């Protein structure tokens, strides 16, 4: 279980996270919804170790993750599919996948995993020698997910996987998210697309202006209400 | 006393050199060609006073115009490239100018002597100031009049619309372009103004040292020119002045007693300064801080 | 015609040394997209240490090579720690200015190690040049050319076939993503710096062994020649570095023959300026890679 408690992160004097606490239960899909600028990406980057939080703790099981380098955090079994995908544009699809397995030494197992990824994402097999920068947005998203899975994570973090993608592709991505979860991966998902997210999530949080403002399971709150708050924030939406 | 006057002259001339790079830096461009423009100014002004017997002020103005025109001409092709490519391109141009003067011979015979630029041996006997009986103090005062005028002009420019346009281009070229600014014109203008200032500075340099040669205008001087405004910060012209005083006054002259060890410490201190203040000694934060201090003390005084 | 061919041959041989210098530069520039003006001076530190053990203890060629490379690597790491590791990705100019300051420091350090202006450097190979019809080929020149080709092939292999190379290319592509896949970015960058300095150290050794002397001007010379060759060949391209070096060498040899030594350097700089303006990505470089800005859109 991934547990975030009382996390404070800031850019200079501006606090982006003002004491955030939440948890992603093992084997489930947890979703974090909220408007732009709520601090969702800051939270993801803090968990992955790219940003150093001011205060608070992030624990995976019994291991404290705050203060560890991003590389060590990957070693602990956390992989982030970042916002805007951030594939390695000048490297081939295959090389992107191999980079995802950077910390692993088992060559045969890595090759087998690459095959597994190709089975799961057939488009990647077709394009394995192509430079990642030349892929379409949806294909890059598949690649980013596959690359993250190559480290065999216990927890998969996904930051806005549907951003800028066509509806059909979005549906495909969420189908894969459920599938991965069914195969045993814990998933912590940040989304703006509340409708899709609520269909797959077991549990969800609402975040506004650096604070968690709601925690519950889908159905506990009317979808209209969730969408309004996820896009606009409660303070403005409620008047 | 003469030592200090000499130092004041050096600081003045280097401030002009730094300000010429400051101009260009505002548009987000790092130019290592400033030493080249400085060299052009030095040779042109020297030749005008020595060979053509011009008075100093018109000679300096022409030196500025020639260096500025060259900068303008270089600006168009050079600004096609960006970032580090521009650094290297301008460095190459600056070195080419230096090597041009290394090969440049134009000597006239005057009273049995050959005078004028003489290739690798340089250009000796630029004796305008001693011939017309200027004292060191007068020369120093003259230099600082030019420096103050330049700083005032740039200060005014910083605060005018022109300064805002330059900064806009420096901050985000695409955004500047989409808000209707002609980026090429702005960059080339900044380059030209920088060239003029460097040319005038070079002209003065030639006259107070009385002897110039190509090696003085190499990549080292070019890097100094850029280092001043970067170390001083781009928020206003005083940053450059302070950086020149810090480097020329403190690091070079002040540490002279350390002899051979000076350069070791020199390098270390610059690196330390860049590490502690990567945006320059004086940045926007410093200015707000000073303003706040001044403001507070006023409040206290009125309270 | 005979002169033309002989000049071209000489140019290729000298150009091989430029190519080697450019190879080290390409590694640093390719990974960090920053200009390390201290590249040449750190090679010079190695060369001075090599000369020191040669002059003081009459060390053999192997010891001199090892010392030169080791010294260059240590000086390179010193530069990386001070000028590159602590600076943010956006502060590229601060890094350049710092590396310039370190240049002065290293040059002074070299003068403190050995205060005379010129010191002897052990020769690489003595013996009569090979004669091919009317043309002459110096043996040490041939060895340098061979080294240049071998080393560039080696570097190419490391970058495109090894795990370390994969990490470096990932860092070039997107440093944030490189962190996210678990690459230790800081260590990898430092190792790239060390590797670049080692290649530079070998290049420096070969050049100096042919000149058989070393002066404090070597640092600046190495930085400028390496930089020009890299830029002509194309940023971030390993074959481009060698090719750029060869082109520079040949152009220099011909202008030396026709116009003399002073014009030679002038021609080199004009060539570089023209190359940058007309074809900023160089002969073999790819434009998008040259334009990649690192880490700006992150987080």
List the helices and strands and how they pair.
The complex is a heterotrimer of chains A (239), B (303) and C (299).
Chain A: E1 2-11, E2 14-24, E3 29-33, H1 40-47, E4 55-60, E5 63-64, H2 70-75, E6 78-81, H3 93-100, H4 107-120, H5 122-126, H6 137-149, E7 155-159, H7 167-182, E8 186-191, H8 194-200, E9 203-208, E10 211-216, H9 223-232, H10 234-237
Parallel strand pairs in A: 3-8, 3-9, 6-7, 7-8
Antiparallel strand pairs in A: 1-2, 1-4, 4-5, 9-10
Helix pairs in contact in A: 3-6
Chain B: H1 2-25, H2 34-50, H3 56-78, H4 83-102, E1 108-110, E2 113-115, H5 128-131, H6 136-159, H7 161-171, H8 173-178, H9 183-209, H10 219-232, H11 237-254, H12 262-276, H13 284-302
Antiparallel strand pairs in B: 1-2
Helix pairs in contact in B: 1-6, 1-9, 1-10, 1-11, 2-3, 2-4, 2-9, 3-9, 6-7, 10-11
Chain C: H1 2-32, H2 39-57, H3 61-84, H4 92-113, E1 119-120, E2 130-132, E3 135-137, H5 139-161, H6 163-173, H7 175-180, H8 185-211, E4 213-214, H9 218-233, H10 238-259, H11 261-278, H12 287-291
Helix pairs in contact in C: 1-5, 1-8, 1-9, 1-10, 2-3, 2-4, 2-8, 2-9, 3-4, 3-8, 5-6, 5-8, 6-8, 9-10, 9-11, 10-11
**How are the strands ordered across the major sheet of chain B?**
1-2
Question: What would you say the CATH architecture of the largest domain in chain A is?
Answer: 3-Layer(aba) Sandwich
Percentage of β-strand residues of chain A: 25-35%
Report the count of strand segments of chain B: 2
Number of strands of chain A: 10
Shape of chain B: globular
Largest Cβ-defined interface = B-C, 44 and 49 residues
Strand order of the largest sheet of chain A: 6-7-8-3-9-10
Name the assembly state: heterotrimer
End-to-end separation of chain A in angstroms reads 37 Å
Largest sheet of chain B: 2 strands, antiparallel
Whole-number total of structural domains of chain B: 1
Classify the helix fraction of chain B into a percent range: over 70%
Our Rg estimate of chain A from Cα atoms comes to: 17 Å
**Uncertain segments of chain A of ≥5 residues (pLDDT<50)?**
none
Counted by DSSP, the helix tally of chain A is 10
């Amino acid at each position: 279980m991934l547990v975030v408690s009382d996390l404070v992160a800031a850019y200079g004097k501006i606090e982006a996270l003002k004491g955030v606490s939440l948890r992603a239960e093992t084997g489930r899909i947890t979703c974090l919804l909220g408007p732009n600028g709520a601090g969702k990406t800051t939270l993801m980057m803090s968990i992955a170790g790219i940003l150093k939080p001011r205060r608070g703790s992030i624990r995976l099981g019994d291991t404290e993750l705050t203060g560890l380098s991003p590389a060590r955090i990957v070693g602990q079994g956390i992989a982030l599919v970042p916002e805007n995908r951030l594939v390695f544009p000048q490297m081939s699809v295959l090389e992107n996948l191999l980079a995802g397995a950077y910390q692993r030494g088992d060559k045969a197992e890595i090759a087998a995993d690459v095959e597994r990824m190709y089975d799961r994402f057939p488009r990647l097999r077709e394009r394995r020698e192509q430079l990642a920068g030349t892929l379409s947005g949806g294909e890059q998203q598949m690649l980013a997910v596959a690359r993250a899975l190559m480290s065999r994570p216990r927890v998969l973090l996904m930051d806005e996987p549907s951003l800028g993608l066509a509806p059909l592709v979005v549906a495909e991505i969420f189908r894969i998210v459920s599938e991965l979860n069914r195969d045993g991966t814990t998933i912590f998902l940040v989304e703006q697309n509340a409708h899709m997210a609520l269909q797959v999530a077991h549990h969800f949080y609402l975040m506004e202006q650096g604070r968690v403002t709601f925690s519950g399971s889908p159905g506990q709150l009317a979808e209209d209400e969730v969408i309004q708050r996820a896009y606009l924030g409660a303070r403005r939406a409620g008047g | 006393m003469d030592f200090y006057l000499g130092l004041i002259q050096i600081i003045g001339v280097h401030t002009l050199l730094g300000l010429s790079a400051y101009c260009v830096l505002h548009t987000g461009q790092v130019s290592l060609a400033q030493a080249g423009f400085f060299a052009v100014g030095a040779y042109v002004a020297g030749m005008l006073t020595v060979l053509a017997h011009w008075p100093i002020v018109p000679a300096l103005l022409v030196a500025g115009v020639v260096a500025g025109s060259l900068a303008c001409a270089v600006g168009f092709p050079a600004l096609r490239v960006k970032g580090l490519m521009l650094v290297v391109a301008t460095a190459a141009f600056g070195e080419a100018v230096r090597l041009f003067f290394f090969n440049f011979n134009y000597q006239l015979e005057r009273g049995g002597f050959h005078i004028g630029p003489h290739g690798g041996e340089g250009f000796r006997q630029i004796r305008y100031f001693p011939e017309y009986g200027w004292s060191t103090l007068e020369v120093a005062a003259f230099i600082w009049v030019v420096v103050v005028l330049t700083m005032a002009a740039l200060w005014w420019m910083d605060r005018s619309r022109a300064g805002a346009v330059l900064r806009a281009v420096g901050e985000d070229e695409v955004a500047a372009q989409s808000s209707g600014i002609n980026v090429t014109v702005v960059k080339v203008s900044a380059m030209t103004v920088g060239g003029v200032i460097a040319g005038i500075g070079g002209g003065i340099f030639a006259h107070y040292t009385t002897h110039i040669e190509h090696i003085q205008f190499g990549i080292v001087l070019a890097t100094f020119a850029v280092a001043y405004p970067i170390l001083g910060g781009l928020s206003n012209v005083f940053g450059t002045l302070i950086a020149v005083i810090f480097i020329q006054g403190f690091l070079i002259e002040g540490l002279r007693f350390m002899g051979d060890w000076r350069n070791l410490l020199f390098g270390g201190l610059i690196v330390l300064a860049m590490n502690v203040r990567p945006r320059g000694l004086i940045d926007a934060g410093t200015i707000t801080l000073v303003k706040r201090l001044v403001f507070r003390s006023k409040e206290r005084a009125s309270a | 015609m005979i002169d033309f061919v002989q000049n071209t041959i000489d140019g290729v041989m000298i150009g091989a040394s430029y190519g080697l210098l450019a190879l080290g530069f390409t590694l640093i520039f390719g990974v960090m997209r920053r200009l390390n003006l201290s590249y040449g001076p750190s090679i010079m530190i190695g060369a001075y240490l090599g000369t020191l053990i040669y002059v003081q203890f009459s060390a053999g060629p192997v010891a001199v090579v090892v010392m030169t490379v080791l010294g260059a690597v240590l000086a390179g790491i010193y530069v990386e720690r001070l000028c590159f590791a602590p600076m943010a990705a956006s502060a590229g100019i601060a890094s350049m200015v710092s590396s310039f300051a370190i240049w002065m420091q290293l040059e002074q350090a070299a003068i403190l190690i050995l205060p005379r202006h010129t010191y002897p450097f052990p020769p690489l190979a003595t013996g009569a040049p090979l004669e091919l019809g009317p043309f002459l080929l110096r043996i040490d020149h041939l060895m340098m050319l061979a080294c240049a080709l071998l080393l560039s092939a080696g570097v190419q292999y490391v970058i495109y076939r090894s795990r370390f190379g994969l990490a470096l290319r990932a860092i070039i592509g997107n440093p944030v993503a490189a962190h996210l896949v678990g690459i230790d970015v800081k260590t990898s960058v430092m190792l790239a710096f060390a590797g670049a300095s080692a290649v530079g150290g070998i290049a420096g050794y070969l050049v100096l062994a042919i000149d058989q002397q070393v002066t404090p001007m070597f640092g600046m010379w190495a930085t400028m020649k390496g930089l020009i060759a890299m830029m002509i060949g194309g940023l971030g391209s390993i074959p481009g570095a060698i090719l750029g070096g060869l082109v520079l060498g040949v152009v220099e040899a011909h202008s030396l023959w026709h116009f003399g030594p002073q014009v030679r350097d002038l021609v080199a700089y004009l060539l570089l300026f023209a190359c940058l303006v007309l074809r900023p990505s160089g002969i073999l470089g790819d434009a998008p890679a040259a334009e990649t800005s690192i880490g700006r859109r992150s987080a």
